Amino acid sequence: MNVRRLLAKLVVALGCFFNATCDGTPPIEHPQSAEQAISPLVKAKVAELEKATTLTHWALYTEQTAPANYQSIHRKADVFQVGTFDEVRAYYHGLDAWHDEAENVDTPAGCVNEAVAPDGRLCPSVVLPGTSVPIEVGHELITLFNTPAAGEVMCQAAPKLSFVYRYKGVPVGELSLDLNCPRWSASPGSEKPYPSAKVREQLVHICHRAGLFWCSDNDPDSQQMWSVWRQKNMEELPAPLNHPTHDKRRKTAPLPVAPTTALSNLTVREQTLLCAWNMQHVGLSRAPGRDHAGLVMPGSTTPLRGGALGLAECVEKFPKCTQTLGEIAACQEAAQKGDLWFVLPNNAGCKPMLDCRWGFQSEK
Question: Where are the alpha helices (DSSP H) in the chain?
Answer without folding.
Answer: 3-10, 17-19, 40-52, 135-145, 197-209, 220-233, 268-281, 311-316, 325-336
